[in-house]
């Protein structure tokens, strides 16, 4: 076998392996959402506002301002969750709140309260309600920059 043919074959195999190996990672990265993508609805946030008033306002204040012992849920609250996913915040709400009865919020109520918190922190509204895909939604404190267009060559 000639050296040129051998190098061409190896290059083809390497390119094929690269494409097969990294394509699922690329697909996964594209599937990941951010809180800036509009991951809750107005209706869900409205339900959450009522639930917040019933379960959270006594400690965190009617305007989410905190009370000295319980932290505010706007402003300085946001950077504490940077680099996490919405699942992390959801789990905190569902398992540790309310303080006087931790773990008693039903999953739908915790999701609605989370939608309300997102709305009150000026994250954009979307077309779909928060659901079980919370782990795929990153809690980005600042709006991510758009991805640069790819420079794929066409033949």
Description:
The chain has 155 residues and is mainly alpha-helical. The N terminus is likely disordered.
Instruction: Tell me the overall shape.
Output: globular
Number of strands: 3
Structural class: mainly alpha
Q: Any guess at the CATH architecture of the largest domain?
A: Orthogonal Bundle
Q: Kindly, what is the distance between the CA atoms of the first and last residues, rounded to a whole number of angstroms?
A: 28 Å
Give the strand line-up of the largest sheet: 1-3-2
Count of helical stretches: 5
Largest sheet: 3 strands, mixed
Q: Residue share in helices?
A: 40-55%
Entry keywords:
155 residues, mainly alpha, Cytochrome Bc1 Complex, Chain D, domain 2, 2 domains, three-stranded mixed beta sheet, 5 helices, 3 strands, globular, disordered N terminus
């Amino acid at each position: 076998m000639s050296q040129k043919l051998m190098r061409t074959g190896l290059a083809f195999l390497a390119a094929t392996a690269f494409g097969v190996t990294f394509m699922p990672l690329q697909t996964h990265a594209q599937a990941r959402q951010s809180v800036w993508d509009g991951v809750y609805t107005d209706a869900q946030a409205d339900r959450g506002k009522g639930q917040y008033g019933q379960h959270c306002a006594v400690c965190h204040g009617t305007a989410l301002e905190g009370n000295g012992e319980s932290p505010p849920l706007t402003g300085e609250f946001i950077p504490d969750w940077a680099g996490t996913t919405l699942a992390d915040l959801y789990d905190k709400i569902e398992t540790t709140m309310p303080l006087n009865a931790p773990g008693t919020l039903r999953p739908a109520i915790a999701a609605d309260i989370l939608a309300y918190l997102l709305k009150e922190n000026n994250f954009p509204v979307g077309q779909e309600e928060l659901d079980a895909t919370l782990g795929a939604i990153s809690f980005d404190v600042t709006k991510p920059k758009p991805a640069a267009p790819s420079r794929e060559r066409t033949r």
